[in-house]
Amino acid sequence: MAAFFASGRVVDLILLLMLTEALVVLAWWHRTGRGLAPAAFLPFLLAGACLMLALRAALVGAAWPWMALALLGALLAHLLDLWRRWR
């Protein structure tokens, strides 16, 4: 189990689950017109995915610029989410 975490595979699994969640929510919205609109949840989900990528980079010992880039992506997605909610 320790190797599963240290290799970053746990983050790969989480990202796969997040992608599955996004596809299910999008399919439901397109099929029924109900639920969350893509613009309502995609920035939020993107921020989380970027944080997961930063975690993966840290777990596998990637160079710091990769972690910084992932964290910057999370910040930008978070700011977009806030901007959309406050409008």
Give a description of the structure.
This protein has 87 residues and is mostly helical. The protein has one domain (2-86). The protein is 86% helix and 0% strand. It is built from 4 helices and no strands. It has helices at 2-6, 9-32, 38-60, 64-86. The mean pLDDT is 94.
Low-confidence stretches: none
Query: What portion of residues is helical?
Result: over 70%
Q: Characterize the largest beta sheet: strand count, sense, and whether it forms a barrel.
A: none
What is the element string, with H for helices and E for strands?
Answer: HHHH
Task: Kindly give the count of domains.
Answer: 1
Number of contiguous helices: 4
Query: Which structural category do the helix and sheet elements fall into?
Result: mainly alpha
Shape: flat
Strand residues, percent: under 5%
Taking the alpha carbons of the first and last residues, their distance comes to 45 Å
Overall pLDDT metric: 94
Rg of Cα set: 15 Å
Count of DSSP E strands? Answer: 0
In short, what is this structure?
This protein is 86% helix and 0% strand.
List strands and helices in order, with pairings.
Blueprint: H1 2-6, H2 9-32, H3 38-60, H4 64-86
Helix pairs in contact: 2-3, 3-4
Task: Give keywords.
single chain; mainly alpha; 4 helices; flat; DUF2568 domain-containing protein; transmembrane
